[in-house]
Write a structure and sequence with these properties.
Growth Hormone, Chain: A, 436 residues, 2 strands, globular
Length: 436
């Protein structure tokens, strides 16, 4: 009898323990994804980095991480096809936690870069497995719901970085110095990763029989076969959707808060901290609320209609919402919060639908490599959104990055409408874990 948990039909021999262990790893991995952006400014202060150099250093560190993602994601996916998902996931979580533990102890920019490389390598493995394991654990009948629940939990993880960001002030109030407060905060973040490492080590399923049967394949062969998968119309469409969905998230994360802080300081005489509290936090809450709802709705929809048809639905909604930002002259207006709520629904819908489609189309024995290339497409989208979006923001105005990515969403929507009927649903066997 097939087991269901939270509406997700589990693959053969996958248990509730495996699934809940995975969801805890997702919660921590998604928390890590946003934590450096929240915590790094404090580290730069205790290092004594001049104010006029902090922005450039922050941008360069973020760009370096995305470039490493582009280089590594395909490789770590191929490695997981050879040695199993658990080993790679555990490595990623443990390495990321070590990087976080070391980060606030940097005494030079070179040392900070070295620690960021450790975080990036671990994150590539961790985030690559986050999108791959759910494809292994769920049958195709409920793949949309599975990715919807994963998106919901990942969104919950986004609440952790603000909580961590509030700890240094508390520690300072308790009598610790600034450096010690930062080190304690990062230590707590590292401990969170160690807990997830242990949960993944003892809770995730062993490698599947399909992976075990192809363990002698070379990494190069797996990578080549994974790259060839893009010949499939559905896989290619999912890569395009990954590019745009990750770019959407990056634009919102990088420029919404910046726009609101600048607006509050220029028009309302606020300090940066006042603008963060009064303007940015409500806006983020609106986006995250929409994402929590949108993840479940798109998960259900992707199981009701074809996964390929869900792509133009999600990208069409994102196109409408993001291009509507063109008409925003006052980002603090009440009606804008409704638009931001819809933005949360749109961006998570694109995220969930793209993962559901690539999980459906990817052959299980090379799923890791295919998901790796899927991650590469997303990393390219993030890199272009952050670097190119910054230029657009400064040169043409704060709404421009949103509008440009709205137009790119429209391109993916049209592409999806043209090809979704031609996407054939493969009948892959569900992965079966080896007996422990």
């Amino acid at each position: 009898m097939t087991k269901r948990i939270l509406g997700i039909e589990l693959s053969p021999k996958i248990t509730g323990v495996h699934l809940w262990a995975y969801f805890y790893a997702v919660l921590v991995a998604s928390a890590y994804a946003g934590s450096l952006a929240a915590l790094q400014p404090g580290v730069l202060q205790i290092m004594g980095i001049p104010f006029d150099q902090q922005g450039n250093l922050t941008g360069n560190l973020a760009a370096m991480q995305e470039i490493l993602f582009i280089v590594l994601l395909g490789y770590v996916g191929a490695v997981s096809d050879k040695v199993g998902r658990k080993s790679v996931y555990v490595f990623g979580l443990f390495t990321t936690s070590i990087g976080f533990g070391l980060y606030p102890h940097a005494t030079s920019v070179a040392e900070l870069v070295a620690y960021r490389v450790i975080v990036a390598v671990g994150s590539a493995a961790m985030l690559g497995m986050m999108v791959t394991v759910i494809a292994d654990y769920s049958t195709n009948r409920t793949r949309g719901k599975a990715n919807g629940v994963q998106g919901f939990i990942a969104t919950l993880g986004a609440f952790i970085p603000p909580l961590l960001a509030g700890l240094p002030a508390k520690f300072v109030a308790d009598g610790y110095g600034e450096a010690a407060a930062q080190q304690l905060t990062f230590g707590i973040a590292a401990a969170l990763g160690i807990s997830a490492t242990l949960v993944a080590l003892f809770g995730l399923a062993p490698k599947s029989t399909q992976i075990a049967a192809h363990a002698r394949e070379s990494i190069t062969r797996i990578l080549i076969d994974g790259a060839k998968a893009a010949r499939d119309t559905g896989v290619a469409l999912s890569y395009g959707a990954a590019f745009i969905s990750r770019g959407d998230l990056a634009v919102t994360g990088a420029f919404l808060g910046l726009w609101l802080v600048q607006h509050g300081m220029k028009t309302q005489g606020m300090t940066p901290s006042e603008a963060m509290f009064a303007l940015v936090m409500p806006a983020i809450l609106a986006v995250v609320s929409g994402a929590l709802i949108g993840s479940i709705l798109m998960g259900i929809l992707a199981d009701r209609i074809s996964r390929a048809a869900a792509i133009p639905v999600a990208s069409g909604l994102a196109a409408a919402v993001y291009m509507s930002i063109f008409f925003v002259t006052d980002p603090t207006a009440d009606w804008v919060k409704g638009l931001l709520f819809l933005m949360g629904i749109a961006e998570i819908s694109a995220f969930v639908s793209s993962q559901a489609l690539v999980g459906q189309q990817a052959e299980p024995r090379h799923r890791g490599a295919i998901m790796g290339f899927f991650g590469v497409a997303g990393a390219v989208g993030i890199l272009i959104a952050t670097k190119g979006g910054g230029i657009l923001f400064d040169t043409y105005g704060p709404s421009t990055p949103f509008v440009v990515f709205g137009a790119l969403n429209l391109v993916v929507c049209i592409w999806g409408l043209l090809v979704f009927r031609s996407v054939r649903v493969p009948q892959w066997p569900d992965p079966v874990p080896e007996s422990p």
